[in-house]
C-alpha cells in the first residue's frame, strides 16, 4: 500500500506496503479554491477500501465512507507502530467520500474517488448517532433522493420496532428503494418494496446492484388498493411517504388487514410541532415552500389518537425525531451541492428550514402493533 496526504500542497506523510490483497492504495491531496481535495485510488478486491492495520476487510455493504471512513483510515495509519511516519492532524480533518458507493463497490474492481474536505455531503455521515446508516455512501443515497435522509429516519424508527431476520416486511412508498436495501441488509428481512410513482424495473435495478435482488421484490401499488393477501406481512414500514396517503381514516384498516396478529406498523412522516388547525393557518415561511401540503403534517399525538381510536392497533411509541429539522436541512444542503439543478429545487426548502429553526417543522416517528 502507498499512501500520501497533502494539505494546501504541503506533504504530510507517506507509507508503502501491502494491505489485505490490494494491489495498491494511493491517496493524494491537492488544494483548490481554499479546499483540500483527496484523490483516493484503489485497485483489487471490492470492499477493501479501508486502510486497517489489522488487515481486516469490510464487505461492500459495510464499507465505511465519508468522514468516519477517512478518519478511521488516517487514525489506523497513524496509530500503527509499523508505520514510520505520522500524518499529524489528519484524523481531525473532516473528509467525506463523495463518489464511491457501498453499492457500486459490489461490482467495482477499481475506483477513483474525489473527496472534499469542506462539503455538505460530509455532514451526512454520523457513526456515533446513526452507525448503521453511516455504512452507506452519501453519494449513493443522494442519487436516490426523493426526500430527507431515508436511512436516518428508518434507523431511528427501527429503535421502536422489533425487526428480526426472516421477517416479511412491506416497505410502503419505498421510492427508489434505499430503505428496502437497508431493511434487507441490516435486519435480514424479506422485503416487498411498493411504490406508485417509481417503476418496479427501476427499483429492481437498484436492488440487484446492491446485491439484495433475491431478498427484495419491487411492485407498483397504490396505498389504498394494495394487492396482497390478508395477514401476509410481519411488519409494514413507511418512510417519508405516509403523509401523502395515510391521513385518510380508511388507510389504517387497509394496512392492518395485511398484518399478521401482533404484526408491527411503523411510520416516519413529516410533522409539525403543533397542528395547523390549532395555529389557524400554515405559517407563511412553510406555505411559501410547500403550499397546503403541510396541513397533512400531523403531530405524533394526532397520529396516536387517529390510530388508537380504531381499536385496530396498540400504539407503542409516538414521538418527534430529535433535531429532525436540522437533519432535514443537512440533507437539503447536500442535495443542493451534489445534485444537478439541486440548488434550484432544494433552495426553497433550505430557506424554509433555516427560517423555521425547529419552531414548527419536524418528523413524527410512530409505531404500533396489531390487536
Topology of helices and strands:
Layout: E1 2-7, E2 10-16, E3 24-32, E4 35-43, H1 66-79, E5 96-97, E6 110-116, H2 138-143, H3 150-158, E7 168-172, H4 178-187, E8 190-195, H5 200-209, E9 216-220, E10 233-239, H6 251-256, E11 259-272, H7 276-279, H8 284-290, H9 300-308, E12 313-320, H10 324-338, H11 342-356, E13 361-370
Parallel strand pairs: 7-8, 7-10, 8-9, 10-11
Antiparallel strand pairs: 1-2, 3-4, 4-6, 5-6, 11-13, 12-13
Helix pairs in contact: 8-11, 10-11
Keywords: Methyltransferase, Transferase
Protein name: Methyltransferase type 11
InterPro entries: Erg6_SMT_methyltransf, Methyltransf_25, SAM-dependent_MTases_sf
Descriptive account of the structure:
The chain is 28% helix and 26% strand. The protein is built from 11 helices and 13 strands. A 7-stranded mixed beta sheet has the order 9-8-7-10-11-13-12, with helices on both faces. The protein has a 4-stranded antiparallel beta sheet with strand order 3-4-6-5, with helices on one face. Strands 1-2 form a two-stranded antiparallel sheet. The longest helix has 15 residues, at 324-338. The model is unreliable at 1-118 (pLDDT under 50). This is Methyltransferase type 11.
Condensed summary:
The protein is α/β, with parallel strands linked by helices.
Query: What is the strand tally?
Result: 13
The strands making up the biggest β-sheet line up spatially as 9-8-7-10-11-13-12
The CATH class of the largest domain turns out to be Alpha Beta
Mean pLDDT: 76
Segments where pLDDT lies below 50 for 5+ residues? 1-118
Number of helices: 11
Specify the biggest β-sheet.
Answer: 7 strands, mixed
User: CATH topology of the largest domain, which one?
Assistant: Rossmann fold
Strand content: 25-35%
In the residues, how many domains can be counted?
2
Shape: globular
For the record, the CATH architecture of the largest domain stands as 3-Layer(aba) Sandwich
Report, as a whole number of angstroms, the end-to-end distance: 58 Å
State the order of secondary-structure elements, H for helix, E for strand.
EEEEHEEHHEHEHEEHEHHHEHHE
Return the structural class: alpha/beta
- Computed over alpha carbons, the radius of gyration is 22 Å
Percent of residues in helical segments? 25-40%
What is the CATH superfamily label of the largest domain? Answer: Vaccinia Virus protein VP39
Amino acid at each position: 500500500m502507498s499512501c500520501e496526504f497533502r494539505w494546501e500542497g504541503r506533504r504530510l506523510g507517506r507509507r508503502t506496503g501491502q494491505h489485505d490483497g490490494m494491489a495498491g492504495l494511493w491517496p493524494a491531496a491537492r488544494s483548490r479554491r481554499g479546499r483540500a481535495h483527496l484523490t483516493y485510488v484503489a485497485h483489487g478486491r471490492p470492499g477493501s477500501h479501508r486502510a486497517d492495520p489489522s488487515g481486516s476487510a469490510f464487505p461492500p455493504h459495510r464499507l465505511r465512507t465519508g468522514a468516519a471512513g477517512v478518519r478511521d483510515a488516517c487514525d489506523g495509519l497513524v496509530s500503527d507502530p509499523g508505520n514510520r511516519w505520522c500524518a499529524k492532524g489528519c484524523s481531525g480533518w473532516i473528509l467525506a467520500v463523495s463518489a464511491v458507493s457501498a453499492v457500486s463497490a459490489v461490482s467495482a474492481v477499481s475506483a477513483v474517488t474525489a473527496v472534499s474536505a469542506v462539503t455538505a455531503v460530509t455532514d451526512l455521515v454520523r457513526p456515533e448517532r446513526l452507525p448503521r446508516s453511516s455504512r452507506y455512501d452519501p453519494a449513493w443515497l443522494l442519487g436516490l433522493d426523493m426526500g430527507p435522509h431515508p436511512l436516518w429516519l428508518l434507523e431511528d424508527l427501527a429503535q421502536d420496532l422489533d425487526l428480526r431476520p426472516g421477517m416479511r416486511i412491506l416497505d410502503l412508498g419505498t421510492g427508489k428503494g434505499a430503505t428496502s436495501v437497508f431493511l434487507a441488509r441490516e435486519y435480514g428481512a424479506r422485503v416487498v418494496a411498493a411504490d406508485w410513482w417509481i417503476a418496479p424495473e427501476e427499483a429492481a435495478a437498484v436492488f440487484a446492484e446492491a446485491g439484495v435482488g433475491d431478498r427484495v421484490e419491487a411492485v407498483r401499488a397504490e396505498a389504498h388498493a394494495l394487492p396482497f393477501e390478508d395477514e401476509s406481512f410481519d411488519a409494514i414500514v413507511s418512510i417519508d411517504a405516509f403523509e401523502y396517503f395515510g391521513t385518510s381514516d380508511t388507510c389504517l384498516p387497509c394496512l392492518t388487514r395485511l398484518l399478521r396478529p401482533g404484526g408491527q406498523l411503523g411510520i416516519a412522516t413529516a410533522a409539525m410541532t403543533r397542528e395547523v388547525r390549532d395555529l389557524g393557518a400554515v405559517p407563511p415561511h412553510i406555505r411559501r415552500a410547500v403550499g397546503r401540503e403541510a396541513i397533512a403534517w400531523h403531530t405524533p399525538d394526532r397520529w396516536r389518537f387517529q390510530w388508537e381510536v380504531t381499536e385496530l392497533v396498540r400504539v407503542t411509541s409516538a414521538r418527534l425525531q430529535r433535531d429532525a429539522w436540522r437533519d432535514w436541512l443537512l440533507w437539503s444542503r447536500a442535495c443542493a451541492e451534489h445534485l444537478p439543478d439541486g440548488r434550484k429545487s432544494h433552495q426553497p426548502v433550505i430557506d424554509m428550514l433555516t427560517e423555521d429553526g425547529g419552531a414548527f417543522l419536524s418528523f413524527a416517528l410512530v409505531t404500533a402493533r396489531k390487536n
